[in-house]
Write a structure and sequence with these properties.
The structure holds two protein chains of two kinds.
Chain A (H helix, E strand, L loop, with lengths): L2 H14 L11 E11 L5 E14 L2 E13 L5 H8 L3 E3 L5 E5 H6 L2 H8 L9 E5 L3 H5 L8 H14 L8 H8 L7 E8 L3 E11 L2 E7 L1 H10 L7 E9 L2 E21 L4 E17 L9 H26 L6 H8 L1 H6 L2 H4 L3 E13 L5
Parallel strand pairs in A: 1-4, 1-5, 5-6, 6-7, 12-13
Antiparallel strand pairs in A: 1-2, 2-3, 7-8, 8-9, 10-11, 11-12
Helix pairs in contact in A: 4-7, 8-9
Chain B lengths: L8 H12 L3 H13 L3 H25 L5 H9 L1 H34 L5 H16 L3 H11 L2 H11 L17 H15 L6 H4 L10 H26 L2 H6 L3 H7 L9 H28 L5 H17 L4 H32 L10
Helix pairs in contact in B: 1-7, 1-11, 1-14, 2-9, 3-9, 3-11, 3-16, 4-5, 5-6, 5-14, 5-15, 5-16, 6-14, 6-15, 7-14, 8-14, 13-14, 14-15
The chains are: A alpha/beta, B mainly alpha.
């Protein structure tokens, strides 16, 4: 009776003895932020911020946030270089932000993306941010409380919610970069003063290369509205000229209805893109003379004209950067496949005529009239 | 037939679904993308249609011999010797399919979950547990399959979560752009991830009350699988750009990888750990079909164990990508012969000679 169980038991013991794939947290150095820069002699400077977790016993941990750097001619080898400096194994499983220097982005970002989406363990929902100036300067900053990467991540998330920057992750950027019918816009951060940074707006890309042209905050919000990427809310500040007096106004967009129509005249080789935007807004701040109610109809008209003018500026910038952020190419490929196969979109995109038209409708004026 | 190992129609439904659903769905969008591009979803629909036609073919064939197992049927129609040769070919086909399922299975688990664990351990665990379940009778297998079907709900739930990712339905447009030929080639690929339905031939005589309603059950099972595959095709086509789909080996897992929640990350790894069970059920059903195709009641257990060991040994042979493609190619040829050619031929012969149940006795 007993001998019947001995063989299965032995087999079980063999199977239970080891686990090949165990990764203990103590053996790893957790990387929370990565930055990539182009140095003066065309080498790549990689910087990482590492969280060093040390147990002090009794469930207490001491956390240190350290910085490591390495330079190489290409991206390859940076990881193993840094790995040698680290106290534990290189672990980019939680690299929340990847900062890419302005100059590096002009060379193309696809090689770095490949290094992130190919390996099994990497984190493909990290945020990609372009920096004005050196990326390592931003990553090297020391805010008082949490590591800079977490600080930056929080800022990015709140900016995404207020429709200031697009909601992009490494994965979605990859999707857009390899698609010829659309281009990506990525947020940028810049250093202000010596120890502070601010999320600026968006950098326009063509393919995987930065065009070097960027849109500041106000315009990036408008671009996102034109792209129909409206999130929860979006705030805008404008200075209008009313009765030859400047009036400043702050409003919050609450509902958005975008209509994008393409008119294609094949004989004249003309592509006209009609962008109709209907915005329902709430006035947050309106500085005007005392004792006067807001003339809503007039204000609606003025705002519409002003925003339409600004939208035209935005689309002109898009054309200048050759950045098809609105996905016009994808539309042509879907609805006019014959035409799409004939044309060279890289060249043709510049000839698209944008006709933006924004209609503003004030639905709330806050708690006062 | 012996009532002890009969299954209900409800169990038949899940039996078919579990044999069909497994490793194939993970890489299906990539396989179909290589030819059909944005029209991959049409390919899966067509493949579903082809499966339905095959089911009708099976139905006409099996209706003539409602009490015989498929392997006796081949002997009755083709004669004893030729029938045995046929059964051997069927056996080899199931072994090969089972082997490919195990091979792909351990490669996916190895490349996603356990890169350092040696193949022989992974294979041992998979094949070992498959043998353990397969040696018990059909009813227990069917019960297990019904029980594990709730895991499909997890798959569906996770797929709903992916709607938070940006979707671009324009990737599906213009419809029919890749041409009839490419869509059909894509159907060929999707048909092979739907394999498992041919097991119906072997389990037919074990179904309770098989006089009516069986056709309805298998049609529903096919509808479910076709619907599920088409749904995931559309989901992947809209989530990845065409170039990406060409590159990614297991798009479905990648889709879950792109999800991130404050408390939960890397859903692909969690999902794959769960999906190990449906992948194993496919192996189990192939082992079962293989053993059924050459054994009788007495030799069944022995055949299962020997076939299992056979598959295990095969799975340890290292293969490079070219060899693997070659084997899959020959497997697909053999598949068409066994799954569609042979039953059609048998039906043709039995119709000509008007052979039916009991006609030999007359």
């Amino acid at each position: 009776m007993k001998s019947r169980y001995i063989i299965p038991l032995c087999v079980l013991f063999i199977l239970l003895t080891g686990c090949w794939d165990q990764n203990l947290l103590v053996n790893y150095s957790l990387i929370n932020g990565i930055s990539l820069d182009l140095t003066n002699n065309d080498n790549i400077l990689g910087t990482v911020r590492v969280l060093n977790i040390q147990s002090k016993g009794g469930g207490q941990y001491e956390i240190q946030d350290e910085q490591f750097q390495s330079t190489r001619p290409t991206f390859v080898g940076l990881e193993s270089d840094i790995n040698k400096m680290l106290p534990g194994k290189f672990d980019a499983k939680k690299a929340y932000v990847v900062l890419i220097g302005e100059e590096m982005a002009k060379r193309g970002i696809h090689p770095f993306l490949a290094a992130f989406y190919r390996p099994r363990e990497s984190y493909i929902t990290s945020k990609i941010v372009i920096t004005k100036g050196k990326a390592s300067d931003i990553l090297g900053m020391e805010p008082q409380k949490s590591p800079i990467a977490f600080f930056l991540l929080q800022g990015l998330k709140s900016s995404e919610e207020t429709t200031l920057i697009p909601e992009e992750t490494l994965f979605t950027v990859w999707t857009k970069i390899v698609d010829s019918g659309q281009d990506v816009v990525l947020p940028y951060v810049e250093k202000i003063e010596s120890k502070k940074m601010s999320i600026g707006g968006v950098v326009l890309f063509h393919g995987d290369k930065s065009s070097g042209i960027s849109l500041p905050k106000e315009q990036s919000t408008l671009l996102l509205l034109l792209m129909d990427k409206f999130k929860k809310v979006s705030n805008m500040d404008l200075i209008l000229v009313e009765n030859s007096k400047p009036v400043s106004i702050t409003f919050r967009t609450e509902r958005l209805n975008r209509n994008l129509d393409l008119e294609i005249d094949e004989s004249a080789q003309r592509i006209i893109c009609k962008l109709n935007l209907k915005m329902d807004i709430q006035i947050r701040n309106y500085l005007e003379e005392t004792n006067q109610k807001i003339n809503i109809d007039q204000l609606n008209k003025d705002l519409s004209t002003e925003l339409t003018k600004q939208a035209k500026e935005v689309t002109d910038t898009l054309l200048k950067a050759n950045c098809d952020a609105l996905g016009i190419g994808r539309r042509i490929a879907s609805f006019h496949p014959e035409l799409w196969k004939k044309m060279n979109w890289n060249e043709e995109y510049k000839n698209v005529q944008f006709e933006p038209d924004i209609k503003v409708n004030i639905i709330k004026t806050g708690h006062v009239f | 037939m012996n009532d002890k190992i009969s299954i209900s129609k409800f169990q038949l439904y899940f039996f078919l679904i579990q044999s069909q659903l497994g490793i194939g769905i993970l890489s299906l969008p990539n396989a179909v993308q290589s030819t059909a591009n944005g029209d991959g979803w049409i390919s899966t629909l067509l493949a579903g249609g082809a499966v339905q036609l095959t089911f009708i073919l099976y139905w006409f064939l099996l209706r003539r011999f409602p009490n015989d197992i498929y392997t006796e049927l081949t002997k009755k129609i083709l004669g004893h010797v030729l029938g045995k040769v046929c059964n051997l070919a069927i056996y080899l086909y199931f072994i090969l399919t089972g082997y490919l399922a195990v091979f792909l299975f351990i490669h996916v688990v190895s490349s996603w979950l356990l890169p350092l664990t040696p193949f022989w351990i992974l294979s041992l665990l998979i094949v070992g547990s498959s043998i353990y379940l397969t040696v018990s009778d059909l009813r227990i297998i069917a019960r297990f399959f019904v029980m594990t079907s709730f895991l499909i709900i997890i798959l569906l739930f996770l797929s709903f979560l992916t709607f938070s990712l940006p979707k671009e339905y324009q990737f599906l447009l213009p419809i029919g752009d890749s041409g009839v030929k490419n869509i059909l080639l894509g159907s060929n690929k999707s048909l092979f991830s739907m394999l498992g339905f041919e097991g119906f031939l072997l389990i037919f005589p074990f179904i309770i009350n098989r006089e009516k309603g069986v056709m309805k059950t298998i049609t529903l099972a096919n509808l479910f699988i076709t619907g599920l595959y088409t749904y995931f095709m559309i989901l992947c086509l809209a989530s990845f750009s065409p170039h990406q789909l060409h590159q990614i080996k297991e798009p479905l897992l990648y889709l879950f990888r792109a999800l991130s929640f404050p408390m939960l990350d890397r859903l692909d790894l969690l999902f794959l750990s769960i999906w190990i069970v449906p992948m194993t059920t496919s192996v189990i059903s192939y082992l079962f079909f293989a053993a059924k195709s050459i054994s009788n009641k007495e030799s069944y257990k022995k055949t299962v164990i020997i076939s299992g060991i056979f598959i295990y040994c095969l799975s340890l042979v290292p293969l490079d990508q070219n060899m693997e493609e070659l084997i899959s190619k020959y497997h697909s040829y053999l598949g068409y012969v066994i799954v569609m050619g042979l039953p059609a031929f048998l039906l043709f012969l039995s119709a000509i000679f008007n052979k039916k149940e009991g006609s030999e006795r007359v």
